[in-house]
Design a protein that fits this description.
The chain is of the alpha/beta class. The protein has eleven helices and 21 strands. A nine-stranded mixed beta sheet has the order 4-3-5-6-7-8-9-14-13. It has a four-stranded antiparallel beta sheet with strand order 10-11-12-15. A four-stranded mixed beta sheet has the order 20-19-18-21. It is globular, with a radius of gyration of 23 Å. The structure holds zinc ion (ZN). Zinc ion (ZN) binds near residues 233, 235, 240 and 297.
Length: about 400
């Protein structure tokens, strides 16, 4: 997916805006002698921008429009360190709402829907993004915000909400409560719009089956507007990204070189029309790939596969880059194995070996299962693991984040 002429011209305008504003980024570009971008080659030579740059620009160093044009800021909550502040002009807010409206439309949501919004409101971009898009569409927004499950259920029943916007974990919690309270026949939900965190196919299936709704994944991050820069369509074959607002590249996270469509790598985004805080080649650290070919829906907006994880999670084995998520997806295809697993990579007898531990109950043939899994990994990811099948309950479990990958090669 190479940048096209229109996108190049838009990026050129973004660079000129930054230079003129002489903001944090403008000065950086000037230092490197960049005055604009005219060709694909020049685009690929533009420096990446990083989250750390955004932190260094705290509080308002990213501002690229006059103060009187800035109508709002949002902030991304870093778990560590300085927060990032993103200023928005009225046009930025409106563009974002347009994109979000398009997301709802791709999900088949209309002005007659009632949209219950459970993500948080405040400094971050979640709740208010869902809200602005709903209002732009002309739907009825029900701005609940997170928590207070009893009230969520009451409103869901009484207001006859037809769309639920939530994180996957909160959607699952609500689904379980609805089942427990026996409310399934009294709710009118048809669709769920779920913020794109990393979530497994099993969880997705559970939410969609328990609530009897269609699920849509929405993509976005605070640095680039917020959620709403893309969503999957009803064919559910990747998320369409609105490349008239945001240009998307996939790069090898180590070399920084672009990878061909269909290959996994790090998502890098360039805003094309942003005024308040344009970003050029911003490294998201999210890992996915561009799906080649056409979507059955006929839309030509490029498609992004499910987010596989963070570039920090990438594992390199025998020249193949892969992500734990890919192993999870394979295991989810096998009803005989649990969702627990562990990957151990070691360097033994002068060669690298990868052992994959999986759990099953005692009723299947361990050897047969291990061969089938090894073949599946070989054909889908490209290397053959040594699969070790163990009884359910043997692998370590912890409430928070279980360490799935143990790399002993460099110890
Ligand atoms: Zn489509």
């Amino acid at each position: 997916m190479t940048i096209n002429d229109t996108q190049l011209q838009m990026t050129d305008r973004q660079i000129k805006r930054l230079l003129k504003a002489d903001n944090f980024y403008g000065r950086k570009l000037k230092e490197q002698g960049i005055t604009g971008v005219r060709s694909v080659e020049e685009f690929l030579r533009l420096p990446f921008s990083h989250k750390q740059d955004l932190r260094d620009a705290y509080p308002l160093g990213l501002m690229a429009a006059p103060e009187e044009e800035i109508v709002r800021i949002h902030s991304s909550s870093g778990t560590t360190g300085t927060p990032v502040i993103i200023p928005y002009t009225a046009k930025d807010v409106d563009d974002w709402a347009e994109m979000f409206k398009r997301c709802y439309e791709f999900a088949g949501i209309t002005a007659r829907d009632r949209i219950q919004i459970t993500p948080g409101y405040g400094l971050w971009t979640a709740g208010i993004g869902f809200q602005n898009g709903a209002e732009k569409l002309g739907a009825m927004a029900i701005p609940m915000g997170p928590g207070n499950t009893a009230k969520q259920l009451q409103f869901m029943v009484d207001m006859k909400s037809t769309v639920l916007c939530a994180t996957s974990s909160y959607a699952l919690l609500l689904a379980e409560e609805i089942e427990k309270e026996g409310l399934l026949d009294r709710i009118c939900l048809k669709k769920g719009v779920i913020g794109s965190e990393r979530w497994g196919e099993k969880m997705r299936k559970r939410i969609s089956e328990e609530l009897r709704i269609e699920l849509y994944d929405i993509y976005g991050l605070t640095e680039i507007y917020g959620p709403g820069i893309g969503i999957n369509c009803r064919y559910d074959q990747g998320m369409h990204i609105w490349d008239d607002y945001v240009y998307m590249e996939i790069i090898d996270p180590v070399s920084g070189e672009p990878v061909p469509d269909g290959e996994f790598g790090e998502i890098v985004l360039t805003t094309l029309v942003k005024e308040g805080a344009p970003l050029i080649r911003y490294r998201t650290h999210d890992i996915s790939r561009i799906l080649p070919g056409e979507c059955p829906c006929g839309s030509t907006y490029p498609r992004l596969d499910v987010i596989q994880g963070r570039s920090d999670d990438m594992v390199k084995f025998k020249g193949v880059n892969f992500f734990p998520k890919q192993i999870e997806e394979i295991l989810a295809m096998y009803p005989d194995v649990s969702s627990e697993y562990q990957i151990r990579i070691s360097h033994l007898d002068r060669r690298d070996t990868l052992r994959l531990y999986v759990e099953t109950n005692g009723t299947v043939n361990f050897r047969d299962l291990s061969e089938r899994l090894a073949q599946e990994v070989k054909s889908r990811i490209g290397f053959t693991p040594l699969v070790k099948v163990v009884e359910i309950g043997v692998l370590p479990r912890s409430e928070k984040k279980t360490k799935r990958v143990i790399d002993e090669r460099y110890e």
